Amino acid sequence: MGANAMWQWNEFISPLTRRFNLYVPDLLFFGESHTSKPDRTESFQAQCVAALMEAHGVRRMNVVGVSYGGFVGYSLAALFPERVEKVVLCCAGVCLEDKDMEDGLFVVKNIDEAAMILIPQTPEKMKQLVKLTFVKPFKVMPACFLTDFIDVSGFSSL
């Protein structure tokens, strides 16, 4: 699920269809979908997705949501726990609160500092990114592996 699902998922659909039955809905007000109802909440979007899946005869599902789609996926699981088996949320700060930011969760001074972390140029910055990204970061990350990863990923040319 995503705001403009086909744009976000198009390159992954074909390989995944070999093992899964996929439904990739554009959320309302994205792509060419619309409604006359004034509701714009994640729970409204989740209810719409649930109704769509019901119309297709899908009773249980796994949900993957990116960005705003993650908020909708979270709402779908919260509203319909009997219908959602697993949820994967990507790039969605669903439970993030202002207090978390005030307490120092990923505080950066400016955009340059954020870019240095998000587009690592050194093994040290790559370790910092991994630590911020994973719940259980790798304990051992050799600098030679990280340097190669930075070079191969194209980070070093940015």
Helices, strands, pairings?
Blueprint (H helix, E strand, L loop, with lengths): L4 H13 L24 H14 L5 E6 L1 H12 L4 E7 L7 H5 L8 H8 L4 H11 L9 H11 L5
Parallel strand pairs: 1-2
Outline of the structure:
The chain is mainly α. Helix content is about 45%, strand content about 10%.
Descriptive notes:
With 158 residues, the chain is mainly α. It folds into two domains: 86 residues, no CATH class; 60 residues, no CATH class. 47% of the residues lie in helices and 8% in strands. It contains seven helices and two strands; from the N terminus they run H-H-E-H-E-H-H-H-H. Strand 1, helix 3 and strand 2 form a beta-alpha-beta unit. Helix 2 packs across helix 3 and helix 6 crosses helix 7. It is globular. The model has no long low-confidence stretch (mean pLDDT 83).
Descriptive labels:
globular; two-stranded parallel ribbon; 158 residues; 8% strand
Helix content: 40-55%
> Could you tell me the radius of gyration in angstroms?
19 Å
Largest sheet: 2 strands, parallel
The number of distinct helices, counting runs of at least 4 residues, comes to 7
Quantity of strands, as a count: 2
Number of domains: 2
The average pLDDT score comes to 83
Unreliable residue runs:
none
**General shape:** globular
Category by helix and strand content: mainly alpha
Q: In sequence order, what are the helices and strands, one letter per element?
A: HHEHEHHHH
Strand order of the largest sheet: 1-2
Distance between the termini: 29 Å
Strand content: 5-15%
